[in-house]
Amino acid sequence: MMLKLDNVTKVYRTGAFGGGSTTAVGGVSFEVGPGEVVSLIGESGSGKSTLGRMILGLTPVTSGSITWNGTAVRPAKSYYREVQGVFQDPFSTFNPVFKADRVFRMIKEVYFPEVPPAEWAERVRASLADVRLNPAQILGKFPHQLSGGQLQRLLIARALLLDIKLLVADEITSMLDASTRIDVLNLLAELKGRGLGVLYITHDLSLGTYLAERTIVLRRGTVAEMGPTETVFTGPKHPYTRELLAAVPRLREPWQEAEPIESCLYHDKAGTGGLLEVEPGHYVACARLAGCAG
Amino acid sequence: MSLRVTDLKVHYQTLKGEVRALDGVSFEVGDGEILGLAGESGCGKTTLGKSLIRMDGRMRHIGGRVELDGEELPVGDDRRMNPFRFHKVSLVPQYSMSAMNPTRKIGRMVGELLRSRGVPLDAEKLAARLDLVGLSPEVLGRYPIELSGGMKQRMVMVISTLLDPSLLIADEVTSALDVSTQKGVATALAGFRDNGVVNSMIFITHDISLTYQIADKIMIMYAGKVVERAPAKVIVEAPRHPYTKLLIDSLPEVGVRYADRRLSGIPGGPPSLLDPPTGCRFRDRCPLAFDKCAQEPPAAEIEPGHVVACWKA
Question: Where does the record place the ABC transporter domain (chain B) (predicted)?
Fold first, then answer.
C-alpha cells in the first residue's frame, strides 16, 4: 500500500479569460507508505492543500503522476474505500439540517448495502470507540450540538468505517482548541500504529513534528527541504526552513533574530535547480548547497 | 495604572436566556504594559476586548467598573463611549481583510476616516507610523485587495492608532497569518508600545506561545472568569492554576515528538454559560478537585503580581 507522487505539477488558469497561469505546484515527488505519517508543511499559497486535493482526486493534475499501489489515482469508489480526506472546517463539512451520524448511514448505502443492519450498528459502535467518542453523546445529534473536536473525530470515524489505508488530513486541528487538538493528534498516532498512513498537511510546524517520521517543507509549490523529521528540525539546511523555525513562537524561549544568511540565491530566485541529497534521505533544494559560491 | 477593571459583568441576551460571558472579571494593566489575554474558544476573551470599546446589540453591561487613566470608561453607554473610542481606546480587529473599505485607495480612506473624527491628516506622522510597521508609503496609493494579509494587518494597526490611543486592544491579530508574517506583525505591535504610540495594550490570542513572546503579563480566562494572572514568565514556567498547567502541558512544541513524550488534552469541555455551575467552573475537568471547590474560589494574590483563583494554589 503506497502512495507515490512523481513530478506532480498543477497549473491554474487565471485572469478574466484564462489567459494567465499560476503554477500552484511545480514538480513535487514523494511517497507515503503504510503506517507512516508524513507532514507536509507550508505557508499560505505553498500548494499544500492543492496537493492534498490532487491526491484525493478532487482536482486533476496538470502533469506528472499520482499512483496508489501502482495504479493512477482517479476519483472512483474503489479508491475512496482506501483513501479518505478530512478537512479543516468540521462545521462546514456536515450538512447542518441532517443529524451528524447520517454520514455513517450514507457510507453504508454507498459502500456496504449488503451488510445487515445489526452488524453495521456494531461496526459504527466500534469505529466510534476507536476515536473515543461515546455513541450516546453523538448519535441522533445535529452538527451544531457537537463540539468541533467531536465533529472532527466523527469524520475520522467515518473514514475508518471504510477500512482506509491512507488518510489525507488537511489542517484538521487548526480550528480546535489546544486542549482537544492534542487528542486528535494522539488518535492519529494510535491509528498509525495500526498501519494507517497519514499525510498530515499543516502550516503549524510544531504539530507537524509531533507525529511525523518524515517532514516535507513546501515553498511556492516546490519542495524546499524534506527528510526525517528529526533531521529537518534539528539540522535544517534550507534557509527557508531555518527562517520558518526561527519564527515559530515557543514557550520558554524568546524570539531570536534569525541568523543572517549570507548571499543566498533563495532571496532572489523562487525556483532552484532541484533537490540535492545532503545525507541519506535528507533532500534540500538550495542553490547554495548545489555549488553556489556563498 | 493605565487600565483598572473591577468586577466587570457582561451578558449576552439570547432566546434561551442570558449567557454570562463575563462574570466578574477584575484586572489591571500598568503603564507601558502589554497584557496577554489567553484562553480557549468561548472563555470570554473577545467579549472582554469588545466590552472595553464597543458592545454589540446583544451585549448588556450588568455590573462592574472600568477606569482608564483614572477616568471612568462608560462601557455600558454606547453614546457616552463615543469620545473615548479611538482617542483613548482603540481596537485592531482579527479580520483586517474585511476591515478596510475595498472601494477606496487606502490613503483616501485614511483621510476620510480622520475627517469623520474631525482630525486633520498629518502626512508626516502617517509616514512615520508606516515606517514603524515596515510598510512603504506607496501602500497609500493602493487598494486593500492589492495588499497581502500581513500588510493589511499592519495597515489596520496603523489606522487604529493614528489618534494615539492610550489603550490598544489587539484581538487575534495574527491568527490568520503565516508564522513568518505573524512574527513580524507581533513584533510591530510591541514596537507601538516601545515607541510610545500607545501607552498600554491588551493582546488577545488563543496561542500562549505567541503571547509569551511579546506580553509582560499573561491573564488566563476560563468560562467567563479569570483563573490566573501573572508575569508572562511565571505563567509559562510556574503556573499555579490546574487549568493553566494542563493548558500549557497540552501544547505541542517544535521538537516534542509523540514517540518521546506523549502529550494529553484536557478531558471534557467548558460548562455552558447560560446557567453556569456554582463554585469553581473548572472543577468537573480538574484532576485536583475536592469538596471545597463547590464554593467559588476567590482570586488570591499569592505573590506580588500573581493572582490565582483556585483553592489548591
Answer: 3-248
Question: Distance (Å, rounded) from C-alpha A200 to C-alpha A189?
Answer: 11
CATH topology of domain B3-88+165-253+263-308: Rossmann fold (3.40.50)
Backbone angles phi, psi at A113, to 5 degrees: -65, -20
Number of domains in chain A: 1
Contact B209 A251 (CB under 8 A): yes
The CATH number given to whatever domain includes residue A172 is: 3.40.50.300
**Residue A271 belongs to some domain of the structure:** no
A210–B263 C-beta distance less than 8 A: yes
Query: Which residues are bridge partners to A20 per DSSP?
Result: A14
pLDDT at A272: 43
Contact A216, A39 (CB under 8 A): yes
> What tens digit of pLDDT does each residue of B52-70 get?
999 888 899 999 999 999 9
Segments making up each domain of chain B, as ranges: 3-88+165-253+263-308
Query: Which are the contacts of A202, defined by CB distance < 8 A and separation ≥ 6?
Result: A39, A40, A41, A48, A171, A173, A174, A208
ipTM of the complex: 0.82
Choose from B94, B218, B254 for mutation: most chain A CBs within 10 A. Answer: B254
Q: Measured between alpha carbons, how far is B296 from A265 in angstroms, rounded to an integer?
A: 61
The single-letter code of the amino acid at B199 is N
Residue A275 lies in a domain: no
Q: Is residue A164 a contact partner of residue A133, using CB atoms and an 8 Å limit?
A: no
**Residue-level pLDDT, tens digit, chain A, 294 residues:** 699 999 999 998 887 777 788 889 989 999 999 999 999 998 888 899 999 999 999 999 999 999 999 999 988 889 999 999 998 888 888 888 888 888 888 899 989 999 999 999 999 998 888 887 888 888 888 888 887 878 888 888 888 888 899 999 998 888 778 887 888 889 899 889 889 999 999 988 888 889 899 999 998 899 999 999 999 988 888 888 888 888 888 888 888 776 655 545 454 444 445 788 888 889 888 766 555 433
For residue A163, is it left (φ>0), alpha (ψ between -120 and 50) or beta?
Answer: left
Strands of A96-180, DSSP E: 166-170
Instruction: Please report residues of A whose CB lies closer than 8 A to that of B174.
Output: none
Closest CA to B64 of B22, B31, B1, B35: B22
Q: Provide the CA A118 distance to its chain's centre, in angstroms.
A: 34
Quick one: pLDDT band at residue B177, thresholds 50, 70, 90?
Answer: confident
Any domain includes A159: yes
B255 vs A203, A233, A254: nearest CB: A233
Taking the Cβ of residue A177 and every Cβ of chain B, the question of whether any pair is shorter than 8 Å is answered with yes
User: Are A125 and A159 within 8 A, CB to CB?
Assistant: no
- Residue in chain B nearest A258 by alpha carbon: B180
CA-nearest of A42, A262, A236, A40 to B180 is: A42
Above 90 in pLDDT, residue B200? yes
- Element (H or E) spanning B127, and its range? helix B123-133
Judge residue B290's burial from the number of C-beta atoms within 10 Å of its C-beta, 0-12 exposed, 13-18 middle, 19 or more buried.
exposed
Q: Is the pTM of this model over 0.90?
A: no
Q: Which domain holds residue A134?
A: 3-224
pLDDT at A294: 39
Please name the residue that has the C-alpha cell 470507540. A129
